[in-house]
Design brief:
Elements (H helix, E strand, L loop, with lengths): L16 H9 L5 E2 L12 H20 L8 H15 L8 E5 L2 H11 L5 E6 L3 H9 L3 E8 L2 E2 L1 H10 L5 E4 L13 H14 L2 E5 L24 E6 L10 E5 L2 H15 L4 H13 L2 H26 L5 E2 L7 E5 L6 H10 L2 E2 L1 E2 L12 E5 L5 H27 L1
Parallel strand pairs: 1-12, 3-4, 3-6, 6-7, 7-8
Antiparallel strand pairs: 2-9, 4-5, 8-9, 10-11, 11-14, 13-14
Helix pairs in contact: 2-9, 4-5, 4-8, 6-7, 10-12, 11-12
The protein binds pyridoxal-5'-phosphate (PLP).
The site of pyridoxal-5'-phosphate has 13 residues, from loops.
């Protein structure tokens, strides 16, 4: 029995599984691969300080005033140009809405498209906060299987025949959180075509696409969209700094205007000052050079992690080998209870995020996410060695239990 008369939207048990995991991992003895933070040593603090000073000098009064719900025009122009150059998305400032973190786009899209009982397709596994958002709007989930190349569009078509009522599909096609997998261009094109054919919206979430340290850039799903069924979203969190809380959505004019109305009810507009500062930062600095620095650092940390996984983990352990982003995904065959493995890891002073919260449906046991972007080089080898010992201990305990 709840103490107060909450809406159905509020999770019943009030528990925060991920919060508990991060709390356990926060012990300074523990090497934690659990978080999902960018490397703070690359935040361009001096350049942001200069951009801030310049904004106060040149546009102080406008930047401190209320602003437009769609966002500061100069920033939307900056976004439109970069989206064309980088993603092949032909757009203009009218079709762009600046959001309070890209997380807000997930929420507003949920609010705009999901009524209680509506069907939402997600990848299996997917970004856990998206599951929480869609759940809060009463979504029923269908999980679309993945392989090393992301969401399987053949499996998607099967699922569509079974669930033609689907209204929304959520995908992270580049260096997915949690798996690090990337969907190739042919699947992206197929997805855009299926969205038109079966008349459902695609929410293409691309926070990590810029952080590529190997392989070739793949065009966005949005660049294949001819019917307006794709909503594209991204963020300044990974290429600049997450504390700014600025992201954006690009969509068909009707959709973006509806999202903007909902945004206005949520928070009137995103931080005006932060928007002016980011637009100024882009004017004064070479963002591509900055992104290259981030990509190089994450690439070398990823390599260190996979080299050590190959060296210390049991040989049958599967792991993704991402070409960008911040995460890789491990699956240990034979592990029946990932929570048991997590607890064993805590005993060995190392942590990860267990796979369970990333699944909207049934979990694939023995799977977990590792973060490498926020991990110092000297900690990676030690942490992976500890993880290997914990895995071996859990597997041998299980064998003993079976043989009893
Ligand atoms: C897949 C994905 N989408 C969205 C977000 C939200 O990011 P932000 O609100 O900082 O833009 C994150 C954050 O880690 C993420 O991993």
């Amino acid at each position: 029995m709840e103490m107060f008369k909450y809406s159905k939207r509020v999770p019943k048990d009030g528990s925060d599984a991920v919060g508990e995991i991060l709390k356990a991992a926060a012990d300074p003895k523990i090497i934690s691969f659990a978080g999902g933070l960018p490397a703070p040593e690359l935040f361009p603090v001096a350049e942001m300080k200069k951009a801030t000073d310049d904004v106060y000098d040149e546009n102080g009064k406008e930047a401190l005033q209320y602003g437009s719900a769609k966002g500061v025009l100069k920033l939307r122009k900056t976004i439109a140009k970069r989206m064309l150059d980088r993603e092949g998305i032909k757009t203009d400032p009218d079709h762009i809405m600046v959001s309070t973190g890209s997380e807000q786009v997930i929420d507003l899209v949920g609010k705009a498209f999901i009524d209680s009982g509506d069907t939402v397709f997600v990848e299996q596994p997917t970004y856990l906060c998206a599951i929480d958002v869609f759940k809060s709007y009463g979504a029923k989930f269908v999980s679309v299987p993945m392989d090393d190349d992301g969401m399987r569009t053949d499996a998607l078509e099967e699922a569509l025949k079974e669930h033609p009522e689907v209204k929304l599909l959520y995908t992270v096609p580049n260096f997915q959180n949690p798996t690090g997998r990337t969907m190739p261009a042919d699947r992206r094109e197929a997805l855009a075509k299926l969205a038109e054919k079966y008349d459902f919206m695609v929410l293409e979430d691309n926070p990590y696409g810029d952080i590529r340290f190997a392989g070739e850039h793949v065009p966005s799903v949005k660049s294949f969209d001819k019917s307006g069924h794709v909503i594209y979203m991204s963020t300044f969190s990974k290429i600049l700094a997450p504390g700014l809380r600025l992201g954006w959505a690009i969509a068909d004019l009707d959709v973006i205007n509806k999202l903007t109305v909902l945004k206005q009810s949520a928070d009137l507009h995103s931080d005006n000052l932060a928007q002016y500062i980011v637009a100024k930062f882009f004017e004064e600095n070479d963002i591509e050079k900055h992104i290259e620095k981030i990509s190089q650092l994450y690439g070398s940390r990823k390599k260190l992690m996979t080299d050590n996984i190959k060296k210390y983990f049991p040989k049958n352990v599967k792991f993704s080998d991402p070409e960008g982003g911040m995460f890789l995904w491990v699956q240990v065959p034979g592990v029946k209870d990932t929570t048991k493995l997590f607890n064993m890891c805590i005993k060995h002073n190392v942590a990860f995020v267990p796979g369970v919260p990333f699944f909207a449906g049934a979990e694939i046991p023995g799977s977990f996410r590792l973060n490498y972007s926020n991990m110092k080089e000297d900690q990676i080898e030690v942490g992976i060695k500890r993880l290997a010992s914990a895995i071996k201990e859990v597997l041998s305990e299980q064998t003993v239990a079976v043989n009893k």
